[in-house]
Amino acid sequence: MSSVSVNKVAHWVWFPFRVTVLFMVRNGKRIAVTVAGLVLFLAGLAMMVLPGPGILVILAGLAVLATEYVWAQRMLNYAKDKAEQAKNKVLRRNGAAQPLAADPEVRPQD
Questions:
Q1: What does the longest C-alpha to C-alpha distance in the chain come to?
Q2: Fewer CB within 10 Å: N-end or C-end of the chain?
């Protein structure tokens, strides 16, 4: 066999390995983000019934997943909106900020 035909055979033998390596290199970050985000998300779900900051860990998992997936970004934005609504309800703001009494620019109404 000539060296040209040996090179062609060697190329086709290594071709599937090369494609697999390229796939892993190109998608390695996505795979790592998916695994890390799912682990955090599932740990947060477990912490909902076990001791621990379940909601915060779930949000952390969504934040990690949102770096690669649009659906996770939408869920994270929804959670942020609900948290903002809850904060406003607790502070009784109803969307409008109230001035602080310690502010020197605010004068008591007569």
A1: 104
A2: C
